[in-house]
Amino acid sequence: MNTFLSLPNVLLAVIVLAIIGFVLGRGRARASVMGDLPKLHSRPIHHGWHVVLATAVPAILVLFFWSFLQGLVSNSILNANIDPSLPDLQIPEAQRALLSEETIVVREAAQRGLFAENVKTLAAALTGAGPSIDIATSDYEALANNLRDAGQVVSADITPGMLDAALDLQALQTRLSMIGPAIAMVLAVGGFFWAFGRIGAEFRARNVVERWIMGFLIFASTMAILTTVAILAAVTVPSLTFFSEYGFLNFLFGFDWSIAGDVVGQPEGENGEYASQLGFMPLLWGTLYISFVALIVAVPLGLMAAIYLSEFATARFRAWVKPALEILAGVPTIVYGLFALVTVGPFLQAVVGTTIMPNTVSVITAGTVMGMMLVPFVSSLSDDVINSVPQAMRDGSLGLGATKSETVTKVILPAALPGIVGAIVLAASRAIGETMIVVLAAGALSSVSGLEANPFGAVVTVTTRIVAVLQGESSGFDSIDTLAVFALAFTLFFITLGLNLLAQRIVAKYREQYD
Amino acid sequence: MKDTTETDRAMSTQNDVKISAKGVQVYYDKNQAIKDVDVEIEGRTVTAFIGPSGCGKSTFLRCLNRMNDTISICRVEGDILIDGEDIYDPRVDPVQLRAKVGMVFQKPNPFPKSIYDNVAYGPKIHGLAKSKADLDDIVEKALRRGAIWDEVKDRLHAPGTGLSGGQQQRLCIARAVATEPEVLLMDEPCSALDPIATAQVEELIDELRSDYTVVIVTHSMQQAARVSQKTAFFHLGNLVEYGDTDKIFTNPEDPRTESYISGRIG
Ligand SMILES: Nc1ncnc2c1ncn2[C@@H]1O[C@H](COP(=O)(O)OP(=O)(O)OP(=O)(O)O)[C@@H](O)[C@H]1O
Ligand SMILES: [Mg+2]
After folding, report:
1. Looking at residue B148, which CATH number applies to its domain?
2. Could you tell me which residue, A509 or B63, shows the higher pLDDT?
3. Does A19 lie in the same domain as A160?
C-alpha cells in the first residue's frame, strides 16, 4: 500500500479510471434511454466527458497543489523542530565576546538557516541513495563517502544532530508525500461514482462539459498575463531592496558603471559607500544610442519596402518578397550578432580606419545590424497599416489625376501615419530590449564612466550588463551588483512597457478613423 | 417640367459629340464584361447609364477615364475618343486624362484631411493656383459649385471625414470640380444618400450641365428621368438602347428596355 501511494502511480491510476469512466459513462448514457438517443438531453459523449472531468480534475488539482504544499509543510515542521541546544548551532565563546548583540542574533539566524539547508540536502541524499546505505553507524565520514559513491550530493560534514534531524525529516516527508495522493485517489473514486450516478436522460452533461471547456480556455488565455505579473513580482522585490540599499537617485543619475562585488549590506568603499559604481546613465545612453542608429537604418528601409510592396510591386514580386522578408524576421538574433561580429564590424573598421574605430565592436556595428534585423519587422507592420487604408482613398486620388507617387505621399502615407508611428515605436521597444546582437557587437567593457559620443566607439547597454553580471563577472550572488541587475531589468521592463502602451494607443486611435 | 425637358432636348441635339466609343470590349481576365459597345456622348449634357446589377455600367464608365488601368486583370479593346483624341493611345498619359475627366464615386471618399485640403488637393497637384489667395478662390468657387459652401465656410479646416454622408458626397463633387475637368463621371453618386441630400445633388448635377459633360450611373429610374437628357440601357454587357431620356422612358424600342424600366428584369 505504502509504495502504491506515490505521485506517478496515483496519477496513472486517475487517468486509467478517467478513461474507464469515459467508456462506461458513454455506454450507460446510451443504456439509460435504451438506445433511443434523441431522448437524451446531452449526447453520450458528453456524459462520458462529464465522468472524465469529475474523476480527473479535482484529483489532479490536489496532486498538483500538494507537491508545492508538501515542501512548505515539511520545511516549517523541520524549522520548528530544530533543537537550539545542538552543538551545530553554537557560536564559539571566544568569537561571541568580540561580537555585538545584534551581530550575534544575525549570525545565529544564519547558522540555523544553514543547518536546515544541510539537513534537507542530507535527507535528499539518504532518500536518493535508498535503503542500501548503512545509517546505523557512527563513522560519519564513511557515511558521507558512501553517499557520494551512490551519486548523491553531500554539502557539509555530517554531525550526529544533523543525521538525526535528516532521518526525522525523511520519515516526515515519506508520510507527507502519501497524503496528497491519498486524497486525490479518494476524490477520483468519489467523483467517478458521483458523475456516474447522475447519468440520465434529463441530466445536462453538455452544459457542464462546455462550461468546463470554457474554463480551460479562460485559464489558457490568462496564463500569459499571470506569468507577466509573476515576472514583475519576481523582479520588483530585489529591485526595491537595491533602491533602498544603493539609493534610487544614485542609480538613476549615476554616470559610472563598474562592479566591485560588495556583498549586500557590507559596503567596502570609502565613507561607508559601495565600492561598486552602479549608475544607470551610461547604460541607458548606450542602449538608446544603438537603438537610435538601428531605427535610422530600419525605418526608411522598412517603410520604403512596405510602400513598394503594397503600392507598386506586381503580385508575383510580392508573392516572392513578402515571405522572404518574413523568413528574415525569423532569423535568431544571435545569428545577426555573429554577422555583426565577423562581417560588419571588421568591414566598418577597414573603411573608417583604426584611429576612429579602435575595435570592431561599436555603436554603429551593433546599430546597423540591429537595424537590418528590424527592417522586416517595420516593413510588415507598415505594410499592414498601408493596406488598411481603404482602396476608395487611392481611387479618389487617382480619379483626380494624381500620379501613383503623389497618391502615396499625399494621401496614403498621411492617412497611415499614426499606424506607422505605432510600428516605429514597437520597433524601438524591440531595439531597446534586444540582447544578443549588442552582447556580440556593442562591446563588453566591464567599466565605463560618462557617455561615449563617438559612434564608432564601444558602449555598454542595459542588456549586456545584465548578461555580464549574471554570468558571474567577478560578483557573487549575494553582491549588490546582482541586485542592481534586477533593478536594470525592472527599469527596462517599464521603458519597453511604456513604449508598447504608447504604440498601442497610437494604433488604436488610427483604427477608429476607418471603422 | 415638360417644357424644360423639351428645350433641353432641343439644346442637346445642338451639342457636339464629346465622347465617342466604338467597338469597346472589356475583359476581366477571361470574363467579358462589356461587349462591343458603340456610343456617342454629347457635350454639356447629362447622360445616364442604367441597367441591372452586374451589367457593366461601372466598368464602362471607368473606361472613360482609364480608371480600369488600376485593375491589373482588366483589358480594354476598341476605340474611345474624347474630343476626337484616342484616350487609349500610348501617347496619352492617363494621369493627364483623369485631370480632364473627373470622377465621383458611389461611396463618398473624402481624404482624411481638412475640407479645404480636400478641395485644394487637385488644384495643388496640377498647379492651377498661382498664389495662396488664388487657391482660396478656387476652393471657394468649387465649394459653391458643390452647393456646400454655406454649410462649411466656417469650418474649412475641420476634417472632411467629419461631415454627414450627403455633405461628404457634395464635398467630393466639389473636389472633382476644383480641378476644372471637362467631363464628370459619377458612379451611383446618390446611393449612400437620403432623399434630401439626393435632391441637393441632383439639383447640382443639373447646374453642372451648363459647363460640363456629365455621365451618371444610377439604379433609380426616377433619378435618370429627372436629371438626364440622354439614357443608355446596358444589359449583360451589351448596350441595348441609347437615346433621348424621354423616349427611352416613354417609348422604348427594345423589349428588354421595356421590361427593365417597367420593373420586370433587374
Ligand atoms: N475588379 C473586378 N474583377 C473581376 N471582375 C469584375 C471586377 N469588377 C467588375 N467585374 C465583373 O464585371 C461585370 C460588370 O461589373 P460592373 O461593376 O461593371 O457592374 P455594374 O453594372 O456596375 O453593377 P452594379 O450596378 O451592381 O454596380 C460583373 O460581372 C463583375 O463581376
Ligand atoms: Mg457599379
Report:
1. 3.40.50.300
2. B63
3. yes
Where does the pLDDT of residue B12 fall: very low under 50, low under 70, confident under 90, or very high at 90 and above?
very low
Average pLDDT, chain B: 89
In a domain, A228, yes or no: no
Nearest C-alpha of chain A: how many angstroms from B17?
23
Q: Is the pLDDT reported for residue A2 higher than 60?
A: no
| pTM (two decimals) | 0.74
A451-454: Cβ within 8 A, 24+ apart: A451/A255, A451/A281, A451/A282, A451/A285, A452/A282, A452/A285, A452/A286, A452/A289, A452/A363, A454/A356, A454/A363
* Contact at CB, B176 and A400, closer than 8 angstroms: yes
Q: Is residue A97 part of a domain?
A: yes
Decide if A468 is inside a domain.
Answer: yes
Does some domain include residue B266?
A: no
Tell me which residue of B204, B69, B57 sits closest to B143, measured CA to CA: B204
| Boundaries of domain holding A419 | 282-514
Proximal ligand: closest to the CA of B31: 1
Domains identified in chain B, total number: 1
Instruction: Determine the pLDDT at residue A477.
Output: 66
Q: Is some CB atom of chain A closer than 8 A to the CB atom of B249?
A: no
Q: Do B105 and A399 touch (CB under 8 A)?
A: yes
Domain count, chain A: 2
- Among the three residues A156, A175, A203, which one is the final residue of a domain in this structure? A203
Name, in order, each residue with C-beta under 8 angstroms of A84's C-beta and a sequence gap of 6 or more: none
Name the residue among B70, B105, B112 with its Cβ closest to that of A513.
Answer: B112
- What pLDDT is stored for residue B52 in this prediction? 93
Does A210 map to a domain? no
Q: Does the beta-carbon distance from B121 to A402 stay under 8 Å?
A: yes
Confidence of residue B16 (pLDDT cuts 50, 70, 90): confident
